[in-house]
Amino acid sequence: MKLSIAVLAGDGIGPEVIEQAIKVSDAVAKKFNHELTWNPALTGAAAIDAVGEPYPDTTHDICVAADAVLFGAIGHPKYDNDPLAKVRPEQGLLQMRKKLGLFANVRPTFTFPSLLDKSPLKRERIEGTDLVFLRELTGGIYFGEKGRRDGGETAFDNCVYTRAEVQRLAVKGFELAMTRSKKLCCVDKANVLETSRLWRETVQAMEKDYPEVTVSYEFVDAVAMRLVQWPNSYDVLITENLFGDILTDEASVISGSMGLMPSASVGTENALFEPIHGSYPQATDLDIANPMATVLSAAMMFEYFGLKEEGQAIRDVVNSALDTGMVTEDLADGGKAYGTIEVGDWLAKNV
Amino acid sequence: MKLSIAVLAGDGIGPEVIEQAIKVSDAVAKKFNHELTWNPALTGAAAIDAVGEPYPDTTHDICVAADAVLFGAIGHPKYDNDPLAKVRPEQGLLQMRKKLGLFANVRPTFTFPSLLDKSPLKRERIEGTDLVFLRELTGGIYFGEKGRRDGGETAFDNCVYTRAEVQRLAVKGFELAMTRSKKLCCVDKANVLETSRLWRETVQAMEKDYPEVTVSYEFVDAVAMRLVQWPNSYDVLITENLFGDILTDEASVISGSMGLMPSASVGTENALFEPIHGSYPQATDLDIANPMATVLSAAMMFEYFGLKEEGQAIRDVVNSALDTGMVTEDLADGGKAYGTIEVGDWLAKNV
Ligand SMILES: CC(C)[C@H](C(=O)O)[C@@H](O)C(=O)O
Ligand SMILES: CC(C)[C@H](C(=O)O)[C@@H](O)C(=O)O
């Protein structure tokens, strides 16, 4: 296969971890006879610094032309903690999601046996956890009308969903559930919100098209609890944008392997793959960042192209690295810690 | 002191746990020479069954006339899991909060040394946790305009906040922080929401009035993570209605003592005290429900009246009961389990 991939390395440790993912992807491509082209483009604080906006049109054009986007991380202290600033990296992120039509954010949370003890949860609570959130990513209160009234004294954010938006996300949920344990949980707040009642009603009406899937409906506050109590009781969860933001982050820490968690954001035309961790500006250029989440995001990218074996090859080599202790300091646990580049090299060599 | 208290026992185990709280409160009142009058009123499914609505006017009048409200729990299977139904117990709850002006929900999360092992979190993560959420309870997306357009195909919920609403909640937060470790965390999503930017802006402007309080600003998704990772790093947290709903429930399970967690909802004129647990219909009338959360809610009620010693007396007797194993089956851990009434009697006798 010939694949062209847009590379949005972003800020902080973004460029370093992306470099390793490219290295490993190239090694896999070589092994399986694919041809990858990498097209770098600016985003985040790096883009604001260079051209004054976080998601420039040139970057968008490169993403649209590519078969997929590999994304690092964005955010830099000089733009952080000032949500009142005019131009912020986050705005670029939201524009990008919207303009690329990336309506489904896919966030798996799973455990690595060798890392179970890193979890803040007790072993028996976390063992066997393997769940996937599908978070709606281009609608809801993130993109509804927002503003001020009464000379700035009143603020509002409108949350809006259409049935079609719910359906296209739910279809992905049902389909994913069919490839797994056929359990789907619809997370909403239908006892309070009209948008949630639309979600529930829409998903209920789709149940008949997937008779094998068992669907449960749970309120977002109950899920926030059960995720900590029995994360391994979940399989596929679908939810709207804001609930997904909160719950996927909550879920990301329970496994104790946050530095290893990949994600995908997909639409009809485009797809983007990125580690769930942030840009960790303090770690920039120290050669200590863990590249594995980005490498596993590249695995999801291969799988998205239908290249299952290639994806599995990456997952396998990451597992070997964990088993043999070829890890960065966040996972070294008193043992020897390797550099970002060393780990990347090892993965590329052994894949 | 002469105090008149409205009693809204509600559904499921509500009446049983309320009965014990009344018993213990009466014992405390006797000891400290107060005169308590209890005025029962209907709410929840019980009220729907009796008069067709979950928060009847007669109930409201009784609450308004009282010095405080003691609330059990509401919710019954026959009205549950059907958020599309016309009349639901939850609606009564929301009406009650709004009509009584209970704008601040106070939700402490703390640990009991003897119960640390019940937490899903590892001991070292949870030890020393003692935090309080102040959740805004009468505004935001819960009470904004909501509805359908396009023949039902589009749903919307509007989230609205005024500066005055933020201020009155934040004042309570700053004041509470002053009585504790002087740390306040404002939880918002100011990188996305205009209402959150109003929250942040308003709280920032109030900092100068409380120079001793150190204020931090954190995004809701980050708090959802840190609550699981290091709950003991928080002290007082203030937040809007929906974020508070999710985060207080998440926080309630980390201590492992959910059956013991009290809460208060206060306004300018009225105040209500209730356990955070639900109505557990399956446990109704089995004499197995843990009454301690309701008893501790009564302690918060005494403290609200300025009766600190009385509140402390209740807290002390609950601690003794835990220490001596005078507990219901949820806490018995293989040891002897006592009935709801036995535990209530013991607390009343030993207070
Ligand atoms: C940075 C922020 C706008 C973003 C979001 O809320 O979607 C982030 O938290 C995420 O989850 O990707
Ligand atoms: C029952 C529901 C309407 C309510 C809420 O969302 O406020 C409950 O979850 C709570 O937290 O008291």
Automatic annotation (TrEMBL), chains A, B:
Record pathway: Amino-acid biosynthesis; L-leucine biosynthesis; L-leucine from 3-methyl-2-oxobutanoate: step 3/4
Keywords: Amino-acid biosynthesis, Branched-chain amino acid biosynthesis, Leucine biosynthesis, Magnesium, Manganese, Metal-binding, NAD, Oxidoreductase
InterPro entries: IsoCit/isopropylmalate_DH_CS, IsoPropMal-DH-like_dom, Isopropylmalate_DH
GO MF terms, alphabetically ordered: 3-isopropylmalate dehydrogenase activity; magnesium ion binding; NAD binding
Gene Ontology biological process terms, A to Z: L-leucine biosynthetic process
Assembly, per entry: Homodimer.
Family: Belongs to the isocitrate and isopropylmalate dehydrogenases family. LeuB type 1 subfamily.
Name this protein carries in UniProt: 3-isopropylmalate dehydrogenase
